[in-house]
Amino acid sequence: MNAEITFLLFLVVISTGLVKGTCPSTCSCSSGSSGSYVNCYSKNLGHIPDLPSDTYSIDLTYNSITKIDVQFCIEMPQLINLLISSNQISEIPVNTFVDCELLQTIYLHNNEISAIEPFTFMNLHNLQYLSVYNNKIRSLDSNTFINMTNLIEL
User: Fold this and answer.
1) Looking at the domain assignment, is residue 146 inside a domain?
2) Those residues with Cβ within 8 angstroms of residue 65's Cβ, 6 or more apart along the chain or in another chain
3) Inside any domain, residue 15
């Protein structure tokens, strides 16, 4: 009997969308057939909040975010657009985007990034737009943008 109740509760949780996460209270979200668009523009965030797993686009511009966790994209496999410019990010660990295979746009400009390690963007075959201007980057390795055959604008 307890197993049946547990299973029914699990089905209720799935059907109400609680499993996929909810919109952060400081942000606004809209859902459509592509998933969730999350707008956290200028919300004075110090870190990236928990986001709905069906997030396809997120705007985190003009916050005080200092890092992007390595596990960032595991929770959001549909992520296509990441706008995280004008924050205080100083580094991007090599495996940060390894699970972000669908990403097409990354805006990282106006941060504090001093270096981008080789192969940081290696898995991003769909990436078309990468903005890293106005950071503290002094040099780049020749393998920094390897295998980015769809990149239109850097």
Assistant:
1) yes
2) 45, 46, 47, 48, 84, 87, 88, 89
3) no
